[in-house]
Amino acid sequence: MAPLDVAAIRADFPILKRVMRGGKQLAYLDSGATSQRPVQVLDAEREFLITSNGAVHRGAHQLMEEATDAYEQGRADIAAFVGADPDELVFTKNATEALNLVSYTLGDNRFEHAVGPGDVIVTTELEHHANLVPWQELARRTGATLRWFGVTDDGRIDLDSLQLDKNVKVVAFSHHSNVTGARAPVAQLVERAKAVGALTVLDACQSVPHEPVDFHALDVDFAAFSGHKMLGPNGIGVLYGRSRLLENMPPFLTGGSMIENVAMEASTYAPPPQRFEAGTPMTSQVVGLAAAARYLGDIGMDAVENHERELTAAAIEGLSGIDGVRIIGPRSMEHRGSPVSFVVDGVHAHDVGQVLDDEGVAVRVGHHCALPLHRRFGLAATARASFAVYNTPDEVDRLVAGVRRALDFFGGA
Predict the structure, then answer these.
(1) Share of the chain above pLDDT 90, in %
(2) Catalytic residue positions?
(3) N or C, which end of the chain is more exposed by having fewer CB within 10 Å?
(4) How does strand 267-269 pair with strand 259-262?
(5) SS3 at position 255
(6) Residue 204: strand pairing partners
């Protein structure tokens, strides 16, 4: 496979031309938190708002028709990108809301898969708070018990730490950890869940932008991802759900757009996905996210994955070669995605981040919305570099050099 023309790709991202404090060229290594947007996405949103902005699925005028067509074509394009059918995708304001939608409806006894007293909800110690706290709340509301898979010393899910039984109703896990980068053993987890009749919920925020993802092939029941992490707009997330499950699920939010009929005594609801899209939808964001999906699709997700794997491997090798730096997560690319979290002996993660910022290198510092995982490793915070299709080997070199500078400046342990 030919290498990517990264220079041409970078030309699509105006923000990457920025010169930061001290005259340093921006090296943006924080795409795991939020990615940058290409002009193709910015232009798609702008063009829609200038020419076709209207209320979706309302009225009979031309702008409404054009807006509705753009909205539903966007759904189809995004569905094709993740290996799903259009009616299996629900638009939400972010992935957190998508995961809350699932957890909330699983507490509604109108749903055949509703969770109740004596049932067990399973997650993992690797999770972002968005795939942990909603399940804690579901357990609290329903009287169910929350259990979890532990984490190995190299930051992967420890499959031997928990056995599933017939009381388990839900197994929720991340495709890639946003801290350790660890890739979940999806096939094994799905097989175990199916064996006990449990539903599977996948947090795919850190995988969809970085590698080919096919939800049908993964065979999960639900999955969530966000727009702003895959070169798309803020304010939009996506929930994937199997059609047969969505058809039987009660609504999450109620009001306009999601109804079939309303009387003073009671209401009936539209079929999915409209049932779960109450109110005026985020039409321009859908248009922008669809443009992002097409942009990545035109590059080719195999090529994106290969490029990012090379960058990640180089970062791990470079950081591991510094005495006093410890990688939190798997070293082997077989078991990981692009986030690389690390600690520097004797230097707080925020100080590392500040030194890197002085060099124009943007990374994430803190607990990355994963406090239990940091406690598992006895850490208050880590620094994290996360890569995207627009990053370069030179930026990896700048990361490694900046970490060396931080260690030298603060004196290490």
Answers:
(1) 98
(2) 369
(3) N
(4) antiparallel
(5) coil
(6) none
